[in-house]
Amino acid sequence: MQNLTYQEVFDYIGIRIIQPFYELRLRRLQELKLNDVIRRKNPYLFKAKNITTAQDFVTDILQAHLSSQEETLFGSYLEELAVFICSKVFRGFKSSAPGIDLEFERNEKRYIITIKSGPNWGNSTQIAKMLLDFQRAKRVLGANSSITNIIAVNGCCYGKDNRPDKGEYLKYCGQLFWSFISGDDELYLRIIEPLGDQAKQRDEVFKEAYSKKVNILTGEFLNEFCVNGDIDWNKLLKFVSSQNTV
């Protein structure tokens, strides 16, 4: 990679991804309230899974809640990493165009890129919006500069797509995407190394806090939604769905 070493990438990951990710993850866990999580979950699903103990219920909803938040959060950090790497290698920059995350020039072509975590990120409506964003960005760039060869790309940080040419845009996933923005075919393998190394110590702190939170929420759930040791599903449903519950 020109103008960029692996050590610079590793340092960036430690300072700008691992550290803030775990700090925010821990803060969100500590601030989390039982009733706020329950309101967002489907009681029918948990009943269908035959959950019968307060701790199993709390653990299940807590894991589901945190994992949905974490995937979105970590995806945004990977997007920032991609912009950082491309800025060093190809002088890429964060685009000011709505819906466009990255712009850079390579081989006399201007690339406008929307970055997503994985390949299965959107439904037809969301993909249609991405296409509109690409079209608008192309019009603005074409009107404000002499650039004529503008190529739209949907970049995905992991996964693969065996048909990258979508007609109106290119879809580069996984290795192909990281190689495209860096010129390094091995980058997708190298960036996972510091993620594991630097996460170990911080994960111990999080696991300790997580165990405490499970115990606290289990106690609250027993007091609020259990009768004689059994989950009161009617009370739970009324809390989540009754018009008379604020």
Task: Write up what this structure looks like.
It is a single chain. The protein is of the alpha/beta class. The chain has one domain (6-241). It is 61% helix and 11% strand. The protein is built from 9 helices and 6 strands; from the N terminus they run ααααββαββαααββα. The protein has helices at 6-31, 34-39, 43-48, 54-90, 124-144, 175-182, 187-190, 192-225, 233-241, and strands at 102-106, 109-116, 150-156, 170-173, 226-227, 230-231. The strands form 2 sheets. Strands 1-2-3-4 form a 4-stranded mixed beta sheet, sandwiched between helices. β1 and β2 form a beta hairpin. α1 (6-31) runs antiparallel to α4 (54-90), α1 runs parallel beside α8 (192-225) and α4 runs antiparallel to α8 (192-225). The longest helix has 37 residues, at 54-90. It is elongated. The mean pLDDT is 91.
Number of alpha- plus pi-helical segments:
9
Structural class: alpha/beta
The low-pLDDT segments are: none
* Basic shape: elongated
- Report the count of strand segments: 6
Proportion of strand residues? 5-15%
Q: Strand order, biggest sheet? A: 1-2-3-4
Offer a few descriptive terms.
single chain; two-stranded antiparallel sheet
What's a concise summary of this model?
This protein is α/β, with parallel strands linked by helices. The protein contains nine helices and six strands.
